[in-house]
Amino acid sequence: MNQSEIIAKAGTFVKQALGNDSSGHDWWHIYRVTNTARKIAEAEKADVFVCELAALLHDIADEKLNASKEAGLQKVKSWLETNAVEKAKSEYVMEIIATMSYNGGNNQPMQTLEGKIVQDADRLDAIGAVGVARTFAYAGWKGHLMHDPELPAREQMTLEEYRKSGGTAINHFYEKLLKLKDLMNTVYGKKLAEERHKFMEAFLAQFYREWEV
Ligand code: ADP
Ligand code: NI
After folding, report:
1. Domain with 157 in it: what CATH number?
2. What confidence score (pLDDT) does residue 64 get?
3. Structure pTM?
4. Which domain holds residue 139?
5. Number of domains in the chain
């Protein structure tokens, strides 16, 4: 298979694997992240194939959707092997996927340009109008409240606390989303993030205006 055939096949695999997920990792999340990753990769003259393939496969390994992080990563590895992806590229993709998740902000910075790009693309999908929508969808999936004025947001937390948080959708903005703008790796990513950040601030201001009339 050539590279574009591998990309097409990865798309089909992911569509089928994540199609009905309602935790915010459905196929359309992957579609948006892959397109954004391609755009940033072209702007940054990075390896577009590695960025697209890592973006397509990144949530197959998500901890929340697998028995363990290792089990998730193994799924990605098997797919890459079955489809005879060149060893160097395959290892590159695995390295990106293994290290890119937010983990409550406790991870090391990404080491490679391609890793930085895919992480930016994933983070961009967590902010802005789509980010707002995904946050409320996720909270519903978890059975969380959208807002509880008596439950303060925590700015600092361990990975355990981050995952377990009985947190609300609104608290998630303070615990993660409003921090992402300053964590962007690439110039293009940062520019897009600033616009989306402003939208979230406007959304929150309006939300509070309506909450206490
Ligand atoms: P994470 O690395 O935080 O798990 P994901 O990309 O897996 O991020 O999360 C999927 C979507 O759900 C994202 O839009 C994310 O911002 C949102 N999300 C994650 N955790 C929460 C939460 N506790 N409350 C509301 N939304 C959340
Ligand atoms: Ni994702």
Report:
1. 1.10.3210.50
2. 76
3. 0.91
4. 3-211
5. 1
Q: Closest residue (by CA) to atom 14 of ligand 1?
A: 126
Ligand nearest the Cα atom of residue 59? 2
Q: What does the pLDDT look like over 59-76, one tens digit per residue?
A: 998 887 788 889 999 999
When pLDDT is cut at 50, 70 and 90, the band that residue 192 belongs to is very high
- pLDDT tens digits, 26-51: 999 999 999 999 999 999 999 999 99
59 CA to middle of ligand 2, Å? 5
Q: What is the DSSP string of the chain?
A: --HHHHHHHHHHHHHHHHTT--SS-SHHHHHHHHHHHHHHHHHHT--HHHHHHHHHHGGGG-GGGSSSHHHHHHHHHHHHHHTT--HHHHHHHHHHHHH-S-GGGTSPPP-SHHHHHHHHHHHHTTSHHHHHHHHHHHHHHHT--S--TTS---SS--HHHHHH----HHHHHHHTGGGGGGG--SHHHHHHHHHHHHHHHHHHHHHHHHH--
Cα 210 to averaged position of ligand 2 atoms, centre (Å): 31
Residues at Cβ < 5 Å from ligand 2 ion: 59, 122
Residue 101 pLDDT > 90, yes or no? no
**Does residue 30 line the site of ligand 1, with CB under 6 A?**
no
